[in-house]
């Protein structure tokens, strides 16, 4: 399962990849334990291209923390670093569905055992729980996503001239969560919704549209920074659960009781629990779909 290649500029050896998804939020996975593959933004965009590449909402570069300058300091806490990229090649702090798929890959490759697995991300170290028996394909995976930050301040999302207020929630990456009457009001989501004030999100934002489905049960659509509309977003589901809880007047820190929301997305279901200590746990599937090697001619063009 280890990559065959080193840098494509140094060698024509084909790069090993896998394809995976979590609730249909799909990723190209590039195993590169020693961080020898240079992945410029244009190569990531080419890999994630759904027509001319493998296709994905993002890319999971699997690197040992000790081998990556952005994660070296975390190597004592987490052996592996999820170097996450969006489909346009931009870098993001965290990916909730991605970290489950990342853990599934490590388990499948024999690089992680059942139990708790620490994964370094740009959003800090996340603890992933691989239940006993978790193997190549089976079993949902739970991630301790850390705490949500709620910066406050008025935020507005505008689609097709219709403005709704939103809550600013940071899950390591930025989110604007707005409750609507009908998910169709999100429109086509071919373009990013307008979010104001721009100063609330200096690095861009993921936008979630949410409707109620029942008690502590919501459904959402999302427009992701750097990827467009996706069929699921794990950090987005966590942001939505926290926003829904506060809207419903529920705060586990105050009650001392955890609260769980079921979040339905176009690509599946995630279950999100906020604990009294503020920690957020997300549970959902993680699937490896395929593996192979890049075709050398395509690789040379994509990385050139
Ligand atoms: N789909 C991811 C989030 C990926 C990063 C996001 N697009 C950003 O730029 O912050 C998830 O499952 O959390």
From TrEMBL:
Residue positions binding substrate: 25, 86, 96-97, 173, 206, 224-225, 234-235
Source taxon at top rank: Bacteria
Gene3D superfamilies recorded: Diaminopimelate Epimerase, Chain A, domain 1
A single cellular component GO annotation: cytosol
Protein localization: Cytoplasm
Main location: cytoplasm
Sites marked Could be important to modulate the pK values of the two catalytic cysteine residues: 175, 224
Enzyme Commission code(s) on record: 5.1.1.7
Active site as annotated: 95, 233
GO terms of molecular function: diaminopimelate epimerase activity
Biological process (GO), any one: lysine biosynthetic process via diaminopimelate
Family per record: Belongs to the diaminopimelate epimerase family.
Subunit structure: Homodimer.
Stated role: Catalyzes the stereoinversion of LL-2,6-diaminopimelate (L,L-DAP) to meso-diaminopimelate (meso-DAP), a precursor of L-lysine and an essential component of the bacterial peptidoglycan.
Name of the protein this chain belongs to: Diaminopimelate epimerase
